Amino acid sequence: MKSHARKAQPTASRGRLIAAAVALLAVIASVSVWLAQRDSSADESHSAHLPAANAALAGPQGGNAGALSALDKTFLTKVRQAGLWEMPAGRLAQTHASSEAIKRAGMHLLEGHSKLDQLAREDSEALSVPIPDEATAEQQGWVDQLKDARGKAFDQLFVDLLRASHGKIFITIGEVRATTKNTLIRRLATQTNNTVQDHMDVLEDTGLVTETTLDDVASTIPK
Ligand SMILES: [Fe+2]
């Protein structure tokens, strides 16, 4: 019995040692998790108190900063009025055009100017620059001409009028985008540039753009 008891004692000790080791590992694991969580929340708290970093991210996208020029204000009006005649023109293309390419161009006009018009109205509000609710008399005259045309005559008139007006505003957009000091106008000029580029592309895809139209656009560039 005595020798049996001596043999049993190391086994019991080993059991206690294993239990202690397991307990120690559990404590180490808990402390590690707690430290990791503490570091993580410290990082979040630290980030939340970095106004300079947040401002730098928000600045180029959404801020309104920088002086407005007379050209900036004119540009806002031009973007608004482009939408006010091109959206009706795009709708007319769906019913009056003979070519699918013209109908497609009309859809691009409708979609592009719906978005651009929304942006122009928001910028007008934010910048306190009033914008008109009507297209110019000349633009309304173009819509009236389109209302009276049908089929192939409509297709050619549509391309002549729209490619000429897009070419002319494209020149103004470059000037505004390159020189404006105002962040909202800069963003609007970028969006307008993309939209007008798209509209020139779909108009050219119809195969109906003439040299006469391009000469007309060229004649408006100041020498
Ligand atoms: Fe357009």
Automatic annotation (TrEMBL):
PANTHER family listed in its UniProt record: BLR2558 PROTEIN
Protein name, per record: DUF4142 domain-containing protein
Organism: Streptomyces platensis
Coiled coil: none
Stretches assigned to the DUF4142 domain: 72-203
